[in-house]
Amino acid sequence: MSYFAELRTHWRPLAASTIGHGVGIGVMAYVVGTFAPHLLAEFGWTRSQFALLGTATLLTLVFLPVVGRAADLFGVRRTALLGVIYMPMSFYALSTIGGDFRVFIAIVISQVVLGIGTSTTVYSRLVAERFVQARGLGLAIMASGPAIVGAIGSPLLSDYIDEHGWRAGYRLMAAFTACLGVLALALVPSGQQPAPAARRARSAPRDYAAIARSRAFWLIAGGMFLCNIAAPLHGPQLKLMLLDAGAPALDAARLVSLYAIGVIVGRFACGLALDRFAAHRIAALSMGLPAIGMFLIASPLDAWWTLWVAVSLMGLSQGAEGDIAGYLVVRHFGVGIFSSVLGLIIAALGVASSLGALLLSLSLSPTDSYAPFLAASAVAVLIGSLLFLGLGRSGEFVDPAAETAPASAA
Asked: I need a labelling partner for 156 at 20 to 30 A (CA). Which of 33, 200, 262, 331 fits?
């Protein structure tokens, strides 16, 4: 099947994964900030209290491997169903809260725990099992779901809240996620659920033991982990870092926009490149780009172009990351345990991000400068990106269930 014929043939799973991921738990990153000023103004909560929301994401480290395993055993539709049902319910519940911050944080935590089935760990399986020639582009489109919803929906939601109030805004989110979540499940092709015989052939101890013995797993996990130590610099710290590097406030805002453009360009450019060139080389190149940018920002160079180049490289790499993890996992582990492995990889990214935030805090305390953390992160990113080159010599993974299939049939 040709490249674009594959996209036409499998448009339903691609649409299901993009829509489902777009209105799933990933959209929270774009929604929370829209409601935050209104909640702080009405209830008198502090920004330090609101910052505690970041700790809720640590729960994903526990539940991502669990939900990944469920997707491998029971399929995407069954695994995502609970999240599709609960996300609208939780948004409606948020529309009824009073001033007790504990109630608010409890609902957000429940969204993380019960809505995790709508994450990329689950929905990317639809692309992994259907696409071969255009797998990289398919993963890029799927990963862009939340960003597309956020880019189009955030300004509209903000205007709606200004006119009708934040409670009405949460009810609108409830209706929006309910309708599109159900549409995503309806688009999941029939027959996607693994057969009972295939589920019986899977053994968690045997599968995870095989994963742990795989050289490819440790190269992917290690590379992703080291490259994500710098993750805090890609989030709320980005503008502060640019101001610290000497960028005027207006230029810093423009650089943040440039970073966002880089994320989009990087996502699709990397997806297309993965479909055409050696995946381990594309991964090494894409994930290594931020090292150059971080060294430039940390350097004494003060020319305007250094920050523009640095931010562009960081944005391109951040976009590529969403394609690389899923692509490398299905390339080296196949579809049978795809979500189980991807759940572990993404959990490792969460650990790296949390560790990076701690290290950044520790480095800022005595120096009040981003330069030490930038330099250390650049070294970590460079080492992590080089690990991907080892995948070119990695042996082929043998699925334990495939090994036992002939014996079971006999």
From this structure: 262
Instruction: Read off the tokens for 266.
Output: 């990087």
CB neighbourhood size of 41 (10 A) = 10
* pLDDT, block means (10 residues), the chain with 410 residues: 86 96 88 86 83 73 91 94 96 95 92 92 94 94 89 88 96 97 95 58 82 94 95 76 77 79 92 94 95 90 84 92 93 92 93 86 82 93 96 68 47
Q: What is the pTM of this model?
A: 0.86
C-alpha closest to that of 87 among 23, 161, 19, 165:
23
Q: What backbone torsions phi and psi does residue 224 show, to the nearest 5 degrees?
A: -65, -40
Helix (H) or strand (E) holding 230: none
* Domains delineated in the chain: 3-194 (1.20.1250.20), 201-403 (1.20.1250.20)
Q: Of 294, 295, 305, nearest to 247 (Cα)?
A: 305
Helix 279-298 vs helix 371-387: crossing angle, to nearest 10 = 170
DSSP symbol at 390 = G
If we measure between CA atoms, which residue out of 318, 253, 323 comes closest to residue 289?
Answer: 318
